[in-house]
């Protein structure tokens, strides 16, 4: 099975099967049938790609319902620490942080469902990140949580005094102050 549970409901690690030989490697980075066989139905409609240098910290971001997005995140080049926070009201893991290193080498992907704040920090000299979304970007629905929220106490894998953070991300609210409209459905 290519999916591994994370201990947080609906948050899954996807590990594609890699075929390697003397020529290099081949793998299907996404196959709708593999997801469907696991009962995962996401009509991905948009791919996003970003290139960043060491120390860039992006996040924590989400889009409010009805424009929320499920994301399938991977590193095409380099290494990132991918970070998510469960912000679904009523979830048994509300406010819980999950981190995973995604890299071009390990080829792991993180399936981030609606109802999670998402971000990442670049751990390598450069990193190129791509993620699929099941809903289109909608600026008016943007939401976020400050990356250094003391209640979350996230270890981003980099020294935060050296972090490169956008002006927009530096003024996001804490989880307790954030506005979000996600509800956990068991």
Explain this structure:
- This protein is mostly beta strands and about 190 residues long.
- The chain has helices at about 30-35, 165-170, and strands at about 5, 10-15, 20, 25, 45-55, 55-65, 70-75, 80-85, 95-105, 110, 115-120, 125-135, 140-145, 165.
- The protein is built from two helices and 14 strands.
- Strand 1 and strand 2 form a beta hairpin.
- It is globular and about 50 Å long.
- The model has no long low-confidence stretch (mean pLDDT about 95).
Sum this structure up briefly.
This protein has 186 residues and is mostly beta strands.
Please outline the helices and strands.
Blueprint: E1 3-5, E2 12-14, E3 18-21, E4 24-27, H1 32-37, E5 46-53, E6 56-63, E7 71-77, E8 79-86, E9 97-103, E10 109-112, E11 116-122, E12 126-133, E13 142-144, E14 164-165, H2 167-170
Parallel strand pairs: 6-14
Antiparallel strand pairs: 1-2, 2-10, 3-4, 5-12, 6-11, 6-13, 7-10, 7-12, 8-9, 8-11
